[in-house]
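Box 4.2: Ligand-aware structure prediction
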Amino acid sequence: MKKLFIETYGCQMNVADSEVVASILSNNYTITDDEQSADLILINTCSIRDNAEQRIHKRLRELAALKKRSPKLLVGLLGCMAERLKKQILDEEPTLDFVAGPDTYRSLPNLIEEAAAGEKAYNVLLSKTETYDDIMPVRYAANGVSGFISIMRGCDNFCSYCVVPFTRGRERSRSPKTILDEARQLLADGYKEVTLLGQNVNSYHYEVDGNVTTFAQLMEQVALLSPQLRVRFATSHPKDISEELIRVIAKYPNVCKFVHLPVQAGSTSMLQRMNRVYTREQYLEKIETIKRLVPECAIATDIIAGFCGETEEEHQATLSLMREVGYSYAYMFKYSLRENTYATTHFEDDIPEDLKTKRLEEIIALQQQLSLEHNRRDIGKTFEVLVEGVSKRSEDQLFGRTSQNKVAVFPKKNYKKGDYVMVEIESCTAATLIGHTV
Ligand code: 5AD
Ligand code: SF4
């Protein structure tokens, strides 16, 4: 068997895709975590912001040295950056032997063969149907407790700043049967948590002979597999999150009380330029429904600072919305211009870099405060924690997650990875709950 080293950048979808790739190549390659001894190195890439791509260019230059030492080593580029740059990146980066877009992984054995014969190979065709439905991923990247299942691919939303509809193509859903089979397999392998993944899981829609499965129904079916299996999902577009789904979250104790609902900006005018198709008020109504039906639910978000034409007033509206919702967590970014998106062809990237930085810093500072306040409200309460491993800080402490997706650390005693334990919270930081088992 030859040795394969896969390096994954970007989102959880990419992690899941790398596991599909490992499976497609498993007849000829076993996974290694030592790049020095690899016969094949695959870099699964992200294009979401320019700095994600710059990191990968830098990494490819580092790999040039390794390739000099082992002339037979093959290096392939996968994922969104492969799709975005296509053949051009083969010309720009001589380290690369082949390039494969996100819908072409079944053709990897052929691409590798061509590359081994000395031909630079690429396949960047997007598909309207590929879901890798029948492929059972090789879970080399997982911790044995928590696994990902990709339930749909692509995105049809065309937010004006975003490259994903171009790199991952049209939205398509995978059959409920294969999703449930994969979840059952995870259970049989001792996993305790599964995250259903897609760019926009709320628009999951699978139809055969007029029978439709919605995302809420799929979640319910996965939740019913075992009360011992926690279910999470990521990520959701606010326009599509349904009351039906929120009721499923409320109904099943093993469906985690955590919703990631990216808002991106707090003013209706900005949301309109972003083509988010909801207003501030409509977003807040969805939040209200979640809080009403699932009072213990934690809510996280994504925010972009300094998008085209952002006024001080619009920026202040983002801050006030953050306070109003009281997010437990946020992923926060500076706007990064992406070629060929609607924003690039119709608006000007006119917020100066230092103002983008200033606004992002204000957003981060506020979120830090909100996370701390959110965590402080947990002090004195007891939560069920799924143990993921030994704490980085101390051998005597374990860490795990609450249903609300918060990291909790506590003394180890005789507990181990994969256990559910009840932890009473004594103190906290903005990032972590600290407690003891009860
Ligand atoms: N610039 C900055 N952030 C972006 N995101 C998507 N596109 C861009 C961009 N061009 C952010 C959004 C999205 C998250 C995955 O990345 O907040 O929800
Ligand atoms: Fe990056 Fe988006 Fe592609 Fe994921 S889907 S790898 S976040 S560009």
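In the box above, the bound molecule is iron/sulfur cluster. The mean pLDDT is 97.
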